[in-house]
Amino acid sequence: MAYLTLKNINKIYPNGFHAVHNFNLEIEKGEFIVFVGPSGCGKSTTLRMIAGLEDISSGEFLINGKRANEWGPREREIAMVFQSYALYPQMTVYDNIAFGLTLQGVDDEVIDERVKKTAAILGLTDYLDRLPRALSGGQRQRVAIGRAIIRKVGVFLMDEPLSNLDAKQRVTMRYEIAQIHQETDATTIYVTHDQTEAMTLADRIVVMKDGYVQQIGTPYELYFKPVNVFVAGFIGEPPMNFVRGEVHHGVLQFGENKLDLSCKLKNIADYEGKEIVFGFRPEAIHLRETEDAYLIHSQVELTEMLGDNTNIYITTGDKQAILKVDSHDTPETDVPLDFYIPLESVYLFDGETENVIE
Prior knowledge:
Elements: E1 4-12, E2 18-27, E3 32-36, H1 43-51, E4 58-63, E5 66-67, E6 78-81, H2 93-103, H3 108-122, H4 137-149, E7 155-159, H5 167-184, E8 187-192, H6 195-201, E9 204-209, E10 212-217, H7 219-224, H8 229-234, E11 241-248, E12 251-254, E13 257-260, E14 275-280, E15 293-305, E16 309-316, E17 319-326, E18 336-342, E19 346-350
């Protein structure tokens, strides 16, 4: 039996707005689940329904097989870390971390032992006497996480906890959150719009769009086996390139490129005269001739040297794409560029449904 179960969960607000549609998910104890998607996709709303901060309009939420729809947040034994940290500014780091235990009437000696242990895990031992305003953003975020994990509850919920940090702090905190999860082995549900956070932290990822679940899977599954154009374009940096076009006599043409799709798709005749979306990832290309690959002719418009790799912005016909290559292979701008896409690295999607063509 799954530890947490969401069955056909819907959220409909009084004004009729349907924020979450038929959300289904089973979460095992100790899993790290990440909800990811653009702003307004319903991920934070779903998290708040799990926390008991939002009512569930329809469907069933189970904890250890027991219906929990009507349980309050405290009954669910869930701790939540908010985007805004939500620290008490007049309290020291020590008192902020201890606050939940103090409310529960836990003995002072037990509180002191657990606060110091939690602070050691989070690297906050030297800051216990400080007020939040004397801390950096990353340190404040650690205090907020400490206040959650000290309670030793079954489930941790994190709502975009790193969005207020700079790029370097986000990398550090991602590592620390992963370490904390390994040490506590708590079930964690984490919300973000950043696909890098999702890919680096999650056991499984739930990709959402417009209130609907698009795909649930491991980072590997979402990256290499996306079910539709949205997932394929959302997961990966830079995003997957897409070329739309109609199929004529089994061939997709754009610019001077004519791609025989029968090499990739046995039932290509079923798509004659229909639109297909041809997708490939920026890093999946080769600049030197390779077997079983499509040859693409293009023009280099712009390059971005990023250290170990370079992004190449190209045009081919009236289409645009991004290639990712080793920085030593950085080409000049405004020159022709031929490259190869291995057949195994090509994705084909139905132009109407945008679902992957198996």
